[in-house]
Amino acid sequence: MTTPDFSKTSFSSSQKPLPKLNLLTMFRLGLFQMGLGIMSLLTLGVINRIMIDELTILPGIAAAAIAMYQFVSPLRIWFGQMSDSKTIGKYHRTGYVWIGAMLFTVLAFVALQVVWQLGTSVQTNGWTGITYGWAGILGLVFALYGLGLSASSTPFAALLVDVSDEDNRSQLVGIVWSMLMVGIVVGAIISSKLLNTPEICGTAILSYDPTQTSKIVDIAKLQAIVNPVFIIMPGVVLSLCFLATWGVESRYSRFRFRSTLVEREDQITLGKALGVLTANRQTGRFFSFLLILTLSLFMQDAVMEPYGGEVFGMCISETTQLNAFYGSGTLFGIASTGFLVLPRLGKQKTTRIGCILASACFSVIILAGVMNSPSLLKSGLLLFGLASGMITAGATSLMLDLTAAETAGTFIGAWGLAQSMARGISTVLGGVFLNFGKMLFSSPMLAYGLVFALQAMGMLGAIWLLGRVDVREFKDNARAAISAVMEGELD
User: Half-sphere exposure (CA, 13 Å, Cβ side) for 173?
Assistant: First the structure.
């Protein structure tokens, strides 16, 4: 389905043409994504690190609980349809964005409180039924957190379509996505400053139990230090959400003038997504490539901060700051690739080089652990971010080439939903493989190294699959295959 050309929309004599979205408003809308970057840092960075390192919660359980927010992503279909059909106040999008933001910012703090209870149960009872019960509650809270994210981010994505035209939508999406990475970098810097206290970076949070052979964390002291961060930072995120969207829908939205609706990502069911992405040989190959790529690229989400803590002895503020190196590298990688690399090397070659560099970066990250060199780890993460930026720019551009114009919204939406599910699986796999590595090896370095080595191997597998993708063949016969899938959905 093609996007309506709002620039040709007719207005009655009593209606003034709606203003075009200006650059300042585009960056203001990006503040919402900046807030999401900060929230991802708090969950995958701080909470995950505390659970695995300080509270010694099994990595597989920690990762599975956090990943629940990704696994509820198919429910965003409902939130998208709700915002299309029912208003809150006078608006289709803004009310949903605000209510969802209030939910996920509050639930981030609630999740942290459940983490303290889970850690206390591990220290007091070990892995008993009570402890597993707290782990289940944590998974439920993260599922609710994911619902809050969907209730907010899905109508926000629809708002981006509503307020933009064909000639400025790509610019808006580029700015908003970049602000997500800016949020990760800024959040990492601010959170590390808030967590950089002598108590949390020293031994004050440790206590000694005569019945234990090692020191254990004093959860009450740790709680007193970390809790304020989960009040201040979500409060900042909620403020950014209000600032980003205040008055935008009423001034710029074209929603009420549409004759047809754009088939957005939030309107794609999981069944339709899989059908479109495996419609013929080339779409199936490209989907397989993107699936392996996503699994390999994001498995480190669950283990990087614990790696810094357990292997390098970094405190929480220092491991949080690692995200700044990765985020900065990613931003530079996307910008430089779009302007310098893609025009010279082409999309497939650029993506292939990015995968090779990412695989090499995992070797650097492993070597940093062997040498116990924090500076080498930071350099490796900076380079990994650069490689990730190259992969993102190259693979996204290639995906647009492998998209039939008649079903562009469907294809891109299908990949968006499939990618969300794949990222949830990759987070779980990172924790599971770390758990397996700790059972297999006595050295923490080897356990973490197993995860990074598997990621490097996955990147090589993605390169092999990419080599089997033929854009010319796709354009020759994929359009008919995808159309057949769409017609089947309508029958």
Answer: 12
Contact 330, 388 (CB under 8 A): yes
Share of the chain above pLDDT 90, in %: 41
Report the first-to-last Cα separation within the chain, whole angstroms.
Answer: 17
pTM over 0.85: no
Nearest to 385 by CA among 403, 365, 405: 365
Buried b / exposed e over 271-302, threshold 16 CB at 10 Å, is ebbbbbbbbbbbbebbbbbbbbbbbbbbbbbb
In angstroms, what CA-CA distances link 353 with 282, 305, 348, 381, 392?
21, 27, 9, 17, 12
The neighbouring-strand residues paired with 216 are 207
Give the mean pLDDT of the chain.
82
Q: What is the DSSP string of 366-417?
A: HHHHHHT-HHHHHHHHHHHHHHHHHHHHHHHHHHHHTS-GGGHHHHHHHHHH
Kindly tell me the sign of the dihedral angle through the C-alpha atoms of 385, 387, 388, 389: positive
Whole-number pLDDT of residue 394: 84
| Residue 194 near residue 320 (C-beta atoms within 8 A) | no
Question: Who wins on pLDDT, 197 or 50?
Answer: 50
Q: Which amino acid is at 460?
A: L
| Residue found under tokens 């390192």 | 53
Q: Which of 8-22, 91-105, 293-307, 317-331 shows the lowest mean pLDDT across its residues?
A: 8-22
Give the pLDDT band of residue 130 (cuts 50, 70, 90): very high
> Which string of DSSP letters, residue by residue, matches 19-30?
PPPPHHHHHHHH
Residue 454 to residue 457: CA distance in whole angstroms: 5
pLDDT digits (tens, 9 = 90+) for 339-372: 788 888 888 899 999 999 999 999 999 999 999 9
Contact 81, 264 (CB under 8 A): no
Q: What is the pLDDT of residue 173?
A: 76
Selection from 210, 203, 5, 241 nearest residue 102 by Cα = 241
